[in-house]
Amino acid sequence: MTQLHEGYDIPAVEAWIAANIPALTPPFTWTRLPGGHSNLTYKIVARDGAEAVIRRPPMGELLPKAHDMGREWSLIKALGPTAVPVPAALGFCESPDVTGAWFYVMGVVNGRPLYNADDCLEWVAPENRVTLAHSFIDVLADLHSLDPDELGLGDLGKKENYVGRQLKTWYRSWTASIEPAQYDDPRAHELQRYFLEHMPDQGPAKVVHGDYGLHNCLIGADGTVAAVVDWEISTLGDPLADLAYALNQWSEPGDPVLAGPGGPTSLPGFPSRAYLAERYAAKTGRDLTMLDFYVGFNRWKTAAIVHGVYARYMEGKKSAEGVDVETLRLRIGLALDSAEQAIERLEKQLGR
């Protein structure tokens, strides 16, 4: 058996597991799992067939809040007894002496993420597409119905001004990226001012996933969400912003597709974003009058994120080999187009 995998001192980690997780008895067979925001994630299987997943941050120096294994662990542990499906929390090591970083061990979930239409064709039968839509939005509604304080997650993040803080962060990113990107768009500035001036009052803070989409759900063979994963940027905030983000990830036939296969839900047979919003409102009782504000905000935020990535390529800080940089540039404009359209719908709805 190989004694070293990237980021893991195998003997030390297996000794820690033997001492701390009775259900798992080393030695293990280690298999690297793809995805997961570059976190080093492996499936480990014992000789008796017991299996689990182990996860730690990537190697090298990290930003202070990046790849937060403690945050992920606290969330799956707290959410385990709730209606929100998560992998079983088996063990957390916060001593970097074992393998150079914090890591945690969780249960294996039989399911797979969906990144594009090809994944969906392969995994989700046409008769399960409505089932998947219902499960996807119901899980988010269940998450947003929980009281963070009752879960022991009341200190997960600041509870106030979630959108305002994000506007500040991502506008700073946009302005810092203008020069290296050699690209600016006046709409980015106009929209930022609009969002600041028209921000709805935030209701009670809830746990927000921050990146909820089918790419961060493990979908079971029956078409339901078997587990939600990748909680590392989860915090407390405005559930309507989290909802709008999820809806923006839910592609529809006819949405612009710049390269490669479309999103998983661009295939026929899936309900629309509007249908999902109505189902969420019915399940949570939330007023969605201002939903397009949050849809527009998230589209603007996407533009800022892609603008920053584009700037790093243009500046030579990231290798552009095999990357369609021009498509990245086009995505910035498309995101701002969508943000404008959302605000136009909102203003028309409000009669302004």
Automatic annotation (TrEMBL):
CDD domains: ACAD10_11_N-like (cd05154). Residues 29-260 form the Aminoglycoside phosphotransferase domain. It holds the Pfam family APH. Gene3D superfamilies: 3.90.1200.10, Phosphorylase Kinase, domain 1 (3.30.200.20). It comes from the Bacteria. This is Phosphotransferase family protein. It comes from SAR86 cluster bacterium.
